[in-house]
Amino acid sequence: MTPLELRASLGLAGLYALRMLGMFLILPVFAVYAAHLSGGDNHALVGLAFGAYGLTQALLQLPFGMWSDRVGRKKVIYFGLVMFAIGSLVCASVTSIEGMIAGRALQGAGAISAAITALLADLTREEHRTKAMAMIGGSIAMTFAVSLVAAPKLANWIGLPGIFLLTACLTVAAIIGVWKVIPSPALSRFHSDAEASAARLPAVLKHPQLRRLNYGVFALHAAQMAMFTVMPLLLASTGHVPVANHWMVYLPVVVVGFIFMVPAVIVAEKRNKLKNVFLLAIALMLVAQTGMALYMPNLTLICVWLGLYFIAFNILEATQPSLISKIAPTAAKGTAMGVYNTCQSLAMFVGSAAAGWLFQHGGAAPVFWLCAALMALWLIVTFGLQPPLPVKTQMFHIGENWHGDATQLTADLSALSGVKEAVVLIDERVALLKVLQSGWDEAGVKTLIDATRNAA
Q: How does the record classify its membrane topology (predicted)?
């Protein structure tokens, strides 16, 4: 990576982390502290407030990404961060659960993840983009883990309003970072590997294998939000753990989940056992959710079920994007990820709202039975998933002034050893390939592209 690419990648990963920290910090404490608001004794409304962020995020995420193609990446990012900051201030100042619902919806209206991804694509060369995306993914995972540990202590010190004020301050820091740290791109264009295309949406939505994965991310995150809608209350009531000490429960189970996730992902990727590992993780998640529904009389059993949950969650969260990348049509990878992320955001709303209503009318067990049903259906759906080929996506720049025969170059690249799929996109000046993880003719690809570039 060049210094500019490294600066852009680290800066955007930091921007993502700051923004996600504000969202994740409320996960383990919201259900407890929302009870102090007027109307907070109505768990159905608490669930709506918890998930309202996801609804507006799902509605605006793809449109904001497409908007950034027209008006510029940074303008959309600034607008989204301002909306998120205003929503955070509203959440910090309200005294009723209805006001909290409005504030959370405003937070979600700052739907800038697609615009950030597009800006990253503008600022990095094709051959380094995967590494840059991995930095963002790593920052999100780290932020989630830190939030589970830090949030209970923070909530005890400054309360839920204080966390929302902190979120607003972090957002202002993010705005300054976009202004001062992140470079402005010399050229912005559409990137099929990183952005959603309206023209490709129908094909992606109809793709039977992608629909299985989209249901999967919906089920996983609906269950996540449902669990966090009630688990803090159960830790306090059944587990008799003060809210300030909830981190003592979350820290060990998150660490255990990470320890088991690493070898599972290595086996899945290196030995081409991705579907097998994926199915086992869903089954483990089903066991955890069923256990929570059937028998959770004390803190020990809560920790056991949470440990199994986080082992499964970490494996599934790490492997699903890889499955999307392997299965999605090469030219529609960005669109497939956009739909996937939208399903994830929608799940946040549906899971929280459903869990709040169920908890209000039937207690915790129906919430976990709902989660178990989502997992059972996911397990059934995933049995029909075609095992993906052991491939990875590679991108090559073909030159800004290239005017060759895209159809012929696509055919020539597709014929090379180890290349399973290829497409040349003249408007984007790239060749996108799906190649075997090892043994593909990288030198042949570069030679062929160089030859056609020189000929053009």
A: Multi-pass membrane protein
Facing residues of 32 across strands? Answer: none
Are residues 257 and 313 in contact, defined by beta-carbon separation less than 8 angstroms? Answer: yes
Alpha helix (H) ranges present in 34-72? Answer: 43-71
- The Cα 210–Cα 37 span in angstroms is 41
Q: What is the mean pLDDT of each run of 10 residues along the chain (456 residues)?
A: 84 83 86 90 94 93 90 93 95 95 94 88 80 82 86 90 92 90 85 87 94 96 94 91 91 90 88 90 96 92 94 92 89 91 94 95 95 96 90 85 84 91 87 87 85 66
298 residue type, one letter: N
Neighbouring-strand partners of residue 432: 395, 423
Per DSSP, the residues of 301-345 read: HHHHHHHHHHHHHHHHHHHHHHHHHHHS-GGGHHHHHHHHHHHHH
Q: How many residues does the chain have?
A: 456
What Rg value do the Cα atoms of the chain yield, rounded? 23
DSSP state of 391: E
